[in-house]
């Protein structure tokens, strides 16, 4: 499922209409009917429905939706909230079709005219402004949005809620607060941003007949359960422990031994053939009982934290993870610098390792490097503020990954996975139960296992993220709440998840 910006969506429309030859009015009719079909599954015939119609393609869709629902016997009031002269092109054609069909169209110049209908409505459908919105809302739409948001009616939006930009933004917005949004053709970038995603409510995408083979690839997509099932490797009946990777996990300290233990256990639960834990020798006795299947390498120790030298024979490993619980000390930076220069295998850096990361050495590596920051850690890496990262995660991730030649997993409610050449995948699985210490350590362990078992790095990272999130979803729907869920619960919940995806 592709994710598009406003400009990319405009280009899809242009290709469909100009290059392929599908008439714009027919395309608008297809879009409106598809949205009406989707919305009708959430509306009862006894519901009083108000459709708020603006200009542009969104308004044109609104005319089709209102006409379609009226044709099917629904109780619909259609309200045009912009002057007639604002409605042009294909939208004007569908306005004429609506009126020619014998239906009444109400005109609203100020909010007081539509307010009584909004107060009586069971459902309010927002087809006022689409992907072309820029800046703050103007009257009367601003007042109409405020009034609609104040009602107890169910609120539904067409493509994206009025007032929400399609793209990344750091502007403050006022917008229609939908309970449900029916997205046309492809989700827009704003559906995945912290500032704007809540305005969408629950959303799904409807197909409207765009010619997929002809559309430019945005190289940005949602990674779904179907994608995981399609790309997750299957075990060969003649496989042995060496077939699925020998991994090294470097981390832990005397005060934080649990992090590396959870990472190792998650990696083994995710199919890694062999896992070695490299940690300070004083921490090994507390870790070993927790993870009996792992082997250990003792690291040099300074005041309870790991220091040089790095484990020998780094080239013997198929994947390395560094940073979980290792501490933010100068010795950490020296140890990581040594591993960056000597390891010629995929290296994942997480947690404390991100704070001590020498970017110049990382940039020189030929083997793959994977960084897994949350927004605060990514802000530290880029020199941006956390608010900047939350406002522009797609563009900042792509710029950073391309500049430093790394795979970047920017964690969050919508996790964005970016390759060194700019391809992006988004994982929307998981829930607030993962907002606990240790969840990231578990994910890092899982990702190392995935990297060692996949031919494609992007498949490995995207699949690991989805499996991690889906495990949390299943656990909080069955045995746990989002309050009590622990990172260790996620590790022990992995077997059922893998069984479901196998």
Automatic annotation (TrEMBL):
Residue ranges of every copy of the YjeF C-terminal domain listed in the record: 224-501
Binding site for K(+): 58, 126, 162
Domain YjeF N-terminal, residue spans: 9-216
Keyword NADP among record annotations: yes
Pfam families, sorted: Carb_kinase, YjeF_N
GO biological process, alphabetically ordered: metabolite repair; nicotinamide nucleotide metabolic process
Catalytic activity field: (6R)-NADHX = (6S)-NADHX; (6R)-NADPHX = (6S)-NADPHX; (6S)-NADHX + ADP = AMP + phosphate + NADH + H(+); (6S)-NADPHX + ADP = AMP + phosphate + NADPH + H(+)
Record EC number: 4.2.1.136, 5.1.99.6
Keywords: ATP-binding, Isomerase, Lyase, Metal-binding, Multifunctional enzyme, NAD, NADP, Nucleotide-binding, Potassium
Cross-referenced InterPro entries: Carbohydrate_kinase_pred_CS, CARKD, Nnr, Ribokinase-like, YjeF_N_dom, YjeF_N_dom_sf
Cofactor: K(+); Mg(2+)
Cofactor comment: Binds 1 potassium ion per subunit.
Family matches, as NCBIfam families: yjeF_cterm, yjeF_nterm
Family, as annotated: Belongs to the NnrE/AIBP family. In the C-terminal section; belongs to the NnrD/CARKD family.
Protein name as annotated: Bifunctional NAD(P)H-hydrate repair enzyme
